[in-house]
Amino acid sequence: MVNPAAMSLLKTSLGFYGPVPEGVEELLAGKLAQADTAARRAGLELNAADPADLQFLVAVAEWLYRKRDAGSGLSRMIREELNDRKVAKCTTGGAP
């Protein structure tokens, strides 16, 4: 099940302010799921009720959507946020 808030943020971030073209909603849902899986693989548990976690999930999903055109690596902001989250998890007793 896709988080409606995450989907709405992702659509807005990508410039979809009205109805999305056919098939795009499913593609975006897949990118959100892929971003969540990537976060879990990195040892992070994202809380859908936490705005910061939700924004991080959307940023990664947006990058996944856009990278198909650009072919670029993770943005500096996403890499730094990911590293900060990993360090915070390690320093609070967990391990990534």
Structure description:
The chain is mostly helical and 96 residues long. Helices cover 67% and strands 0% of the residues. Helix 1 (4-13) crosses helix 2 and helix 2 packs across helix 3 (51-70). The radius of gyration is 14 Å and the shape is globular.
List keywords for this structure.
single chain, 96 residues, mainly alpha
Let me know the average pLDDT. Answer: 85
N-to-C terminal Cα separation, in Å? 25 Å
Number of strands: 0
Shape: globular
Radius of gyration: 14 Å
Query: What is the helical fraction, as a range of percent?
Result: 55-70%
Write the SSE topology:
Layout: H1 4-13, H2 24-41, H3 51-70, H4 76-91
Task: State the gist of this model.
The chain has helices at residues 4-13, 24-41, 51-70, 76-91. The protein has 96 residues and is mainly α. The model has no long low-confidence stretch (mean pLDDT 85).
